[in-house]
Design brief:
Layout lengths: L2 E3 L7 H11 L9 H4 E9 L2 E4 L1 H14 L2 E12 L2 E11 L9 E12 L2 E9 L1 H4 L7 H13 L1
Parallel strand pairs: 1-4, 2-7
Antiparallel strand pairs: 2-3, 4-5, 5-6, 6-7
Length: 151
């Protein structure tokens, strides 16, 4: 279940469509991108920046080819006017990470909405926790460095 905290001047329709899309993310969902994202979407995450809905669709298509699955739980959406913040957990499995076993990663997305479509999305998450910590040898180094920074 997703908690919405929104002001009364905005419609949560687009945010509901977005949450449904990510809950069921797979190749079959990609045609839905144009119902969610503005044609001129600017999508930024630690991997890079993708401009336009076609570039975003190709990014997702390539991403989904490499994973066994990728789904999101979005427990909270905070909305104020044409901006929103999503708190999410990505659940995924990659054949070359963690012996293909299930993994999860927490993150946050900042969104801007225009004409009931997402025109800007910036995802924030720990790339080390998502990827680097699960690569042999590199994972040992990343986890060691994190431990040293804590003390």
């Amino acid at each position: 279940m997703t908690d919405y905290l929104a002001d009364s001047a905005t419609s949560p329709d687009i945010l509901g469509r977005l949450a449904d899309f990510y809950r069921h993310l797979d190749d079959g969902q990609l045609p839905q991108l144009s119902r969610i994202y503005h044609p001129d979407i600017v999508f930024i995450d630690p991997v890079g920046q993708h401009n336009g809905v076609d570039a975003l669709e190709e990014y997702f298509r390539q991403l989904l080819k490499t994973v066994n699955y990728c789904r999101f739980d979005i427990p909270q959406i905070l909305q104020n006017g044409n901006e929103a913040t999503l708190l999410w957990r990505m659940n995924y499995a990659h054949p070359k990470l963690n012996k293909g076993q299930d993994l999860s990663l927490d993150g946050v997305s900042h969104l801007r909405i225009d004409d009931d479509l997402i025109i800007y999305q910036h995802d924030y998450y720990d790339m080390g926790a998502m990827l680097y910590e699960h690569v042999p040898l590199l994972g040992i180094a990343v986890r060691s460095l994190k431990a040293r920074l804590k003390s």
